[in-house]
Amino acid sequence: MNVKIDTKEKFSVICPEAADLSANMTEELEQLLIPYLQKDIPHIVFNMEAVTSISVEAAEKIMSIQQRFYEQNSSFVICKLQPPVEKIFEENEWLEFMNITPSESEAWDMVQMEEIERELLGDG
Fold it and tell me: Is 123's pLDDT higher than 70?
């Protein structure tokens, strides 16, 4: 899977370049994202601007990966969901369990707020 990765001071921005995230990409998604949990800066902003269609399996995998990040006190914020992709998450009632922002800068803000929250709660 082709992705663009932009490493920032507090997080990495990962942008899939494929217009379609299909079921056969779920393993590849996991192999790409899960290793970030072992990095010094494990937080991810997952920019889905280029993704215009997604399989239910790929959407479910993204949701489970995001949950895994939060279980390990790391941020995983999704931004720039396109309407057809957002619809898949909505139809499966996953939106309420996910951190999704309209823009990348709002995703950055959320990662930074979550980091402050973890520090205040002693989980950082």
Answer: no
